[in-house]
Design a protein that fits this description.
The chain has 184 residues and is of the alpha+beta class. The protein folds into two domains: 1-50; 58-183, 2-Layer Sandwich (Ribosomal protein S3 C-terminal domain). Helices cover 46% and strands 25% of the residues. The strands form two sheets. A four-stranded antiparallel beta sheet has the order 4-3-6-5, with helices on one face.
Length: 184
């Protein structure tokens, strides 16, 4: 009987040691799973926060150039003025000769029409939205004033665009920068 009790104690010790070993293995496996999950989350966070590179899009750059040459309904002594000349008139608040129309209102309406006709937006389409901004600076680009901002549609992380800084070549002595982004 003593021998039988001794055998049972030894069997119980072996079972306890085996159970401890199995528990330690399960805890180790759980720690490995948690560690892999944390590494995965870190990689996802880095990927999502990766800055989006804006590449210069020549189609959009050409669109900006063509828009600047568009003739508006605003008139001065030389006839109808272009969008490029209207930017200066807007900044100087120089009313149009015909009916003393507000140049900023004409500029905004003209750009809205051009953009609406040229870039059709749709939440399910190729072009989700766009943003067109004209900024002017009187002081070498240290502080900028937004003359026109036209936004339409949905802003996404995937876009193409062009930023053109014209210095003082347009806008009559003001530094002028035009930014146009098309969101895909």
């Amino acid at each position: 009987m003593k021998n039988n009790i001794k055998q049972r104690k030894e069997i119980n010790k072996k079972l306890i040691l085996e159970n401890k070993s199995a528990q330690e293995e399960m805890v180790g496996f759980g720690l490995i799973i948690v560690l892999v999950a944390i590494i995965f989350i870190v990689f996802i966070a880095i990927y999502l926060k990766k800055p989006v590179e804006v590449t210069e899009d020549y189609e959009i750059g050409s669109f900006i150039q063509a828009t600047l040459q568009y003739t508006t309904i605003c008139e001065d002594n030389n006839g109808n003025v272009t969008v490029q000349d209207l930017i200066k008139k807007c900044k100087d608040n120089d009313l149009c000769s015909y009916r003393n129309m507000n140049p900023c209102q004409i500029l905004n309406n003209t750009l809205n029409g051009i953009l609406r006709e040229s870039w059709e937006t749709s939440p399910n389409g190729v072009i989700k939205g766009y943003s067109f901004v004209i900024n002017i600076s009187e002081d070498r680009g240290e502080s900028w004033e937004t003359i026109v901002k036209v936004d339409k549609g949905v802003v996404t992380n995937n876009y193409r665009g062009s930023i053109q800084d014209f210095g003082k070549s347009i806008g009559g002595g003001y530094n002028t920068a035009i930014s146009f982004k098309v969101y895909n």
